[in-house]
Amino acid sequence: MAGFLPKAIVSVVVFAYGLFNVALYGLIAIKRGLYFKKPTEKQTLELKIARDRMWNLSKDYSGLSHHFITLTNGFKFHLVSNVKPGSPAALNADKPLVIFIHGWPDSSGIWRYVAGSPDLQESANVVAIDLPGFGGSGRLEKYSATRVLEHLTELILTLRMKYGVDSDSESRKKRTIIVAHDWGCVLSMRLASEAPALADRWILSNGPLTKMVESNIRRLLTSAKKMLNTALNSPLSSRTPILQAFRTISPILRQLSLSGYIFAMQLPLPLVRYFLTGGNSALMTSIHFNSHGKQKPTPQEMADCMSSTMGPSLAESKTQTADGESYPTGVQYDRDFSKILDMASYYRHGAASGRWQKSLETITGLHSIAGEKVLRRTSSGTGVFDEGVPGALKASSTIVWGQKDIALDPHLCLDGMANYLVKDSQVVMLPQSGHFTPVEKESRAALEAATKWAIEGEKGDVQVALQVSFPEAHVVVRR
Ligand SMILES: *[C@@H]1O[C@H](CO)[C@@H](O)[C@H](O)[C@H]1NC(C)=O
């Protein structure tokens, strides 16, 4: 009973704040004139063309062809690549493997510029995947940390085999680089922490390191509490400590107001669907309209963005790859935003911070690619010290951060990052860039430059490499 009351209160507050945000976002959409705006005939046509361009399996998209990887449990991942997985070209080429992982509310389509770069395609085997429940991949019943990370890990292990990184007799024959954004970044940070052998370099953009954010929140709350205690002990001079306490927790309050949409996604599913797609998909329209930074997207760019969120339509669901493969069944392709509730479930089922219970297959698979370095680390085993702080990334990482991200408070998301990085890691700041780094013109060039630097064996300083395409890019943390 003791634990019941606070939990009920929390639920009520979450529910109320969620509802408040549905109303708030609705009002904003009405004010912006988006809510009642039906798409014009031209927009509808533009979207249809964009979806055919992006999802028609019989055509290449941005120089990348469509493929599927089916896991041992039958789950089907959709991906695009410049080389067919498992082909002699993929197995034999002496080129690094680069895997791009998208965020929310996107799909492999968000990498149309970076993974679409002819320069990268020339120098690497490039793969952009759709996470479970997004784009053209299959759906999961539950998007818990264990389900999502198990599927993702098996996919990456399979890709490493099919692109000649590992074979039955030998592992790590080529470099593997993972480039990830937003939710893809959240999940990749978990992998870099809990399964670091999966890649040699992690390029991670504008997604929170959940364990660090939690720890930052706890730290700020503790010091605010101390200040309030001081105020209580000397009521006469209490004004300053109360103000200080308030200032201390202001990043938390700011992040809470920025995260209103997360609360809205905890509501009952019909309300969630309404929140995400109602008012002529006002929310998605407004997210994508603002995803290009200072530039206003052209109608075609808008259509590409919406297509990336929506995935294949009924028309594309009937297409086939050159190998005769098609999109997974069990999706209502005739419905607009057919996977929107799957996408929302990442926020509902604890994929970011829940415990990942690794299966025996995963442990064995990770062990087989770990190499000496990682094995020694685990076997020297003095425990806590070796493991670092909870959530610390255990592989070389380059965090590329659009500084003007309005969705993520920089104090909560970056303060203390140095303690979470290993040797040969950096945080690179991109001033003037916003959240959607793979889309904005300047930041996508920076991401491409970082990827190129990793592909070419990390010669020279990453800041110098990035400044060629983004002169103001600068390293703020270096390990
Ligand atoms: C997919 O693309 C092919 C090749 O361009 C085209 O012939 C076909 O009509 C397209 N399929 C659909 C359903 O649009």
UniProtKB/TrEMBL annotation:
Keyword Transmembrane: yes
AB hydrolase-1 domain: residues covered: 98-251
Keywords annotated in UniProt: Membrane, Transmembrane, Transmembrane helix
Listed SUPFAM superfamilies: alpha/beta-Hydrolases (SSF53474)
Pfam families associated with the record: Abhydrolase_6
InterPro entries cross-referenced by the UniProt entry: AB_hydrolase_1 (IPR000073), AB_hydrolase_fold (IPR029058), AB_hydrolase_sf (IPR050266)
Region (Disordered): 292-328
UniProt-listed GO biological process terms: antibiotic biosynthetic process; monocarboxylic acid biosynthetic process
Keyword set includes Membrane: yes
Polar residues bias spans: 306-323
GO cellular component: membrane
Listed transmembrane segments: 6-28
The protein's name: AB hydrolase-1 domain-containing protein
